[in-house]
Structure formats: structure tokens, C-alpha cells
Amino acid sequence: MKKRKVPISTVVLLIILVVCFFYKTEIVTFVMSNITEYTKVNKPKDNKYTNTFDFEFVQNTNDFHVKDKQGILNAIYTILNSGQNEYSFYCSKDYENCLKDLKDISENQTLLSVINNMVSPYNSYQKLYVTTNTYGKATITLDKLYSNDDIKQINEKLDSIKKEIIKDNMTDEEKIKAFHDYIINNSVYDEERAKQIENGDDKNHKHNSHKANGPLLEGIALCSGYSDAMKLFLDDLGIKNYKISNNNHIWNLIYLDGQWKHLDITWDDPVTTDKSNVLLHKFFLVDTNKLHDLDSTNHDFNPDYYLELK
Fold it and tell me: Do 223 and 76 lie in a common domain?
């Protein structure tokens, strides 16, 4: 009986199948790493609260195939600043420490908070998640601090306040002072909640004093509520600014007339023993030397993050 020859193509196919079976992990890794390297990622679409500001610590970027740690920070800032709830970027193939750096950054809550301070409060997060895979893809997922209802109510209140206190012939400094004074005259510091936070028990708070809702809608605020309200006002004026913070306090930093100045509404709205409402201007647009002369303990900050102040 004459034997039938096996076609060469069949033999080749069998060899390929055997190789794929025994080296499937290596093959998948090679293919996926090369696919992600050339995956096109456009800059996320901006929302109406995206600012155009670049800072010395982070900048807006169009490069979502990160090549170093600064590239990761810029990608995170750009995603936050755009107002997206979720967005992905990729490690470049030659960036060997990318996944380690991503892990370090995602676990550094102070660092992430600094970046959060540099975007509109409406685009800021209350929780941020970073997920990665072994092929170098990183996804940022955000739980936003402000709801759509919050934003609607706050914007309506801000419009009402501006109509009441702002005149066309005012300078930017006069507008900022008018808003600073309005907030202090129409709100008080949330002593009760501050004590709860100090004691590690902040589950049953009565007010949204940690957000702009507090001073603008409820007449009560913590430092984060004061500084968010001021940042929203400054952003609306188109003035370059961000919030500056340490572990215990947060206030505003404003670029005005070619200089960076500090503004702390909280400390200009002091708590008094007789509960009287006091309006101060001690912490209104002061430079860093003056700020630390007034109070260095509660206004300490890391100059490695706030490079404009070096």
C-alpha cells in the first residue's frame, strides 16, 4: 500500500502549535507589551472646569506613554484636570521601573493630594484608585468629591454673590478681598466637626463644612471648605492659583501681579470666646516670609511640592 505524504504546511502548523503551547506565556507577553507600546492614547477630553494652568511640579501633557516618574505625575494631573472619571495610560517599553513607580505614587496619599489641590474642586476626587496590569497599562478611576447637584447649587450661589459684591471697575485684588470678606461675614468655623476629626470620629457630621457647600450654602466651614470656595471664585476670575496644604491645614496660593501670595480665610475668621464674628486681613495675600512670621507651625509645607515658592 502506497503511503500518503504529510504536506509540509501541516508539519509546519504542528510545529507552530507545539511551540505556542509550551511558550504561550512568553508569546502573549511579547505581543501584549508591543501592542500597548503602540496603542494610541489621545489627551482626555476637557470639561468646562479644566484649567489651562501648568505648574512647576506638574504640567498638562499629551504623552500617555510615560517614560519616567514625572511623566506619570503629569498624566495623573492631566486626567484629574480634565474632569474624567476614568482614564488609562501606558508605560513605555524602555521604562523598566514604571510599575514600581506607579505603585509608590498610588500609595503616597500626600503626593496625590498635592496634585488634587491643583485642579478645580469640581474635578477633584474624594477617592482615587490606580490599577495596573503586567503589560504596562495603568487606569485611574475617581470618585468625585462634588456631585452634579452640588455643582449646580454652588454655581447658582456664586453667581448671586458676584452680582452682589463685584463691580466692573474693581481690580482683581479688590474682587478677591470682597469675596474673602463676604465668606467670613456669612460663615463660621465648624468647631464641633474639627474636634470630631481630631478625635478620629467624623462619621456623623451635620454639615458639608469640608466642601464649598459649607461656607456658601450652610454658613459653616472647615479650612478645606473655605479654600475650595475661594479656589472656585479664583478659577472663575481666570487667576492662576492652587491650594497648599500640610497634614493639618489647607489654604490658597494665588499668582497676582507677578507674585505668589498666600491667602488663608480660616485664620482670618478666628474662633472667639464670646462667639462674636471677627473679620481679619492678617493672612490676606501675604508672601511666605510674612506668613511664617505670623504662624509657621500651622502653615508649614513641603517646598519639594510647591516649587513656585522656592
Answer: no
Q: Give the C-alpha separation, 8 to 46, whole Å.
A: 56
Same domain, 166 and 112: no
Q: Is 249 helix (H, G, I), strand (E, B) or coil?
A: coil
Q: How many domains does the chain have?
A: 3
User: CA-to-CA distance for 162 and 134, rounded, in angstroms?
Assistant: 51
Q: Are residues 302 and 156 in the same domain?
A: yes
Task: State the Cα–Cα distance between residues 17 and 170, nearest whole angstrom.
Answer: 77
pLDDT digits (tens, 9 = 90+) for 45-84: 999 999 988 999 999 999 999 999 999 999 999 999 999 9
Write out pLDDT tens, residues 100-133: 999 999 999 999 999 999 999 999 999 999 999 9
The residue segments making up the domain with residue 69 are: 65-144
> How confident is the model over 248-257, as pLDDT tens digits?
999 999 999 9
Q: What is 101-150 written as a DSSP string?
A: HHHHHHT-HHHHHHHHTTS-GGG-EEEEEEEE-TTSEEEEEEEESS-HHH
List b or e across 216-227, with b for residues whose CB sees 16 or more CB atoms inside 10 angstroms.
bbbebbbbbbbb
User: Is 103 a domain residue?
Assistant: yes
pTM: 0.87
Whether pLDDT at 169 is above 70: yes
Does one domain contain both 17 and 107? no
Question: CB of 220 within 8 A of CB of 209?
Answer: yes
242 and 187 both lie in a single domain:
yes
Q: Is 261 helix (H, G, I), strand (E, B) or coil?
A: strand
52, part of any domain: no
pLDDT in tens, 268-303: 999 887 778 899 999 999 999 999 999 999 999 999
CB-based contact 216:228 (threshold 8 Å): no
- In the block, which residue shows the cell 463660621? 188
Residue 73 and residue 89 in contact, taking contact as beta carbons nearer than 8 Å: no
